[in-house]
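User: I'm putting together a teaching handout on how multi-component assemblies are represented. Below are the sequence lines for each component of a complex, exactly as they appear in our records. Could you produce the 3D structure of the whole assembly as structure tokens, so the students can see both representations side by side? Please keep the chain order the same as the input.
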Amino acid sequence: MQTPTLRDVADAAGVHPATASRALNPATRGLVNAETARRVIKIADSLGYRPNPIARGLKTAKSGTIGIVIPDLTNPLFPPILRGLEDVLEPAGYTGLIVSTDGDYDRERTLVESLRSRQVEGLVVATAMLEHPLLEQLHSEGVRMVMINRRPRGLDVNSVTPDDGVGIELAVRHLADLGHTRIALLAGPQTTSTGVARSRAFHTSMRDLGLPDDPALSIECATWTEAAGAAGLRALRAAGAEFTAVVASNDLIALGCYDVLAECGLRCPDDLSVVGFNGMPFLDKLAPPLTTIAIPHHQLGGEAGRLLLEAIAEPDRPARSVLLPPALVVRGSTDSPGRSGRPTRQ
Amino acid sequence: MQTPTLRDVADAAGVHPATASRALNPATRGLVNAETARRVIKIADSLGYRPNPIARGLKTAKSGTIGIVIPDLTNPLFPPILRGLEDVLEPAGYTGLIVSTDGDYDRERTLVESLRSRQVEGLVVATAMLEHPLLEQLHSEGVRMVMINRRPRGLDVNSVTPDDGVGIELAVRHLADLGHTRIALLAGPQTTSTGVARSRAFHTSMRDLGLPDDPALSIECATWTEAAGAAGLRALRAAGAEFTAVVASNDLIALGCYDVLAECGLRCPDDLSVVGFNGMPFLDKLAPPLTTIAIPHHQLGGEAGRLLLEAIAEPDRPARSVLLPPALVVRGSTDSPGRSGRPTRQ
DNA sequence: CTGAAAGCGCTAACAG
DNA sequence: CTGTTAGCGCTTTCAG
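Assistant: Of course. Below is the structure of the complete assembly, with chains in the same order as your input.
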């Protein structure tokens, strides 16, 4: 016999399927004679009955699934977030459908369509794109969602993001405390909300601390990658900028700096201090271990999950933005400037 | 109006839902007047109709989903495998449901149950456990599946695994070529099939190359983690073993060695050469960059996907095992022995 | 408290 | 070629 159905249980218990259904569902169990309920339940699990959520979903219009849209699963940023999400979704009886968009807008459209056709009850979206017609459309169509890593401007949408402002300030202040004054910024792409937020925070922090906020000391990296980080630092140096420390908008960009330093025969932190952002795994194994601003990824995923579940349960609840506090993790890539005598100079 | 149903399309086109269904499904489109079909299709997408795979699944007993069971998503080994899988599943119209078991057997049972109740059509399983009643049970119940990273002994089950034998031999030969003769093994847990296979391959390779296969030169790590790797190397040193190189059964265990070396004031590769296994990301950024045996993760996922799709399409096809060729990636953690004069010694 | 009946959206015989 | 009928497994009125 194949996996038993509700009918089989009902037959075996000598009751109507409807009664069996009520007995088996904790929420409706009260509607049924305690004795009958007990019997049905016993029979159900002696038969190894497992309810079929698909059939249930067809009736109730609840699939028990939520769509998770991320740029790329192999970006080490995401797995811990996904675990955090999973840890709240699973106990609530939800399963996540994860898709990787590779940052491709059309692919994202297609994948979101496919998720919606699979009747997901909500979406967790991790695009950083500033401009995003798709999101606005989804929002206007009443799709429940929460954004992570991006706070949508104008849009009344749930979000959970690291507090970029305090994160960057932590980084800048740390460098200032070490005695750095000429601090450069390798900004992330300004087409992304995090890129913009971190850049803005950098300039604000510099001014707040009375440090020179020289435009020549910051440059935009085209992508959030090592290659772009390397290119950025090279360009800064080629332009003749002088600085003893650099704040990278994320860890991968910081790693790109390591490549450039190696290729120029410079040393970190002696010749240049570097601070990353995110707190990826294995940063402590690098040479030198990277000082970074750590984000509570797992918690971020968890908050996103909770927000989404609430949005599903209470559709009228207004959207909320939760900001997670980042932490400065000091490691070997930052030190007082000029330890080996001379500042970085072209 | 909510998302339109097949009925809406049929009504708008003035045909019966069944006809609309046939027209919309490429496989049955031939059964319908080309003209009618065209009209239905046009109406369908003018209405923005998207078929509901859940309803379809209920009827056809095909959910279009695959369960993917891994120990831990945050293990950097898995994301590329999952991408490889996704890249073959998605075009085939399948979606993966990913669960992390944390290596916990009970949790695994529960999660697999939950996947099965969600009517997955097949399972991709990445447990390395040697003993695994659950797998045998699933197999005997006729669940379509493919194992990754583990070749089940006895069980007639599809699998795709790296060729541990040639991988380890590559590692040992590389060290031998550099002039090492006393090579230690930090074995993985012998409760896992990969742990056993790699250990066996190590001993065989040593003997084949005429090197001393001294039992004192190998030790089993309790888990595949940095901590266990560190503990293993410490134990080996504490026991007074002499060796100039170590083969770690995976990259994390190798990273554990770095910690011990740092804590003892020893240097890699000068005092000890280290080679890892897997080819995790960011290994090239470590200090020193880790020499490792790289596995084609993405391809591994892809093969697993293909095998599973075939197993679903042709249930009677006999199971197959595909072995993927690993590659030696030489980096800074290996060099000739005794570069700085003295071998590692307690 | 329990049974009967209907239907979620779709597809698969079976007629016509 | 197309319409009718029935039903996937479950829940939910509505009666009783």
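A couple of points students might notice: Residues 15-19, 22, 31-33, 36, 55, 57-61 of chain A lie near DNA strand C (CB under 10 Å from a C1'). The CA atoms of residues 170 and 328 of chain A lie 6 Å apart.
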